[in-house]
Automatic annotation (TrEMBL):
This is Dihydroneopterin aldolase. Belongs to the archaeal dihydroneopterin aldolase family. Residues 7-112 form the Dihydroneopterin aldolase MtpD C-terminal domain. GO terms for biological process: tetrahydromethanopterin biosynthetic process. It catalyses: 7,8-dihydroneopterin = 6-hydroxymethyl-7,8-dihydropterin + glycolaldehyde. Pathway: Cofactor biosynthesis; 5,6,7,8-tetrahydromethanopterin biosynthesis. Its EC number is 4.1.2.25. The keyword Lyase applies. Catalyzes the conversion of 7,8-dihydroneopterin (H2Neo) to 6-hydroxymethyl-7,8-dihydropterin (6-HMD). The gene is mptD. Homotetramer. The keyword Lyase applies. Keywords: Lyase.
Length: 113
């Protein structure tokens, strides 16, 4: 008999690891309105390469980006611009998680969904 509880814990852990790695790998990358989609695709592609990942989606908040962009036409990617979702599968167990900006806390947060 499979250890379903262990699968659930591992799946949740793996989902969190994927989002944490994404955040720490890409924060600071130069981003503009012109390259935002390219950066989203690169981030998604990097997450999909990792073990257990079934799907990955990354969105850069274009409205915030417009407000924050420097006179040089770009800024460094920050947590308040990123929204990401990942689905992982461990054994027969799926876990979905997201990275999002919490305006009240002024902090990037992660949660299972």
């Amino acid at each position: 008999m499979k250890d379903v509880v262990n699968e659930e814990k591992i799946a949740c852990f793996e989902a969190g690891i994927k989002l944490g790695a994404l955040f720490h790998q890409f924060v600071g990358a130069p981003v503009s309105l012109e390259n935002a989609r390219i950066l989203e695709m690169a981030m998604e592609s990097c997450m999909r390469l990792q073990p257990f990942v079934v799907s990955a989606e990354v969105k850069i908040d274009r409205e915030r980006l417009k407000e924050m962009v420097s006179s040089f036409g770009y800024i460094s990617l920050s947590g308040e611009l990123i929204r990401a979702r990942v689905t992982v599968k461990v054994g027969e167990t799926l876990a979905r998680a997201e990275l999002y900006w919490d305006d009240e806390k002024k902090y990037p947060m992660m949660r299972l969904i």
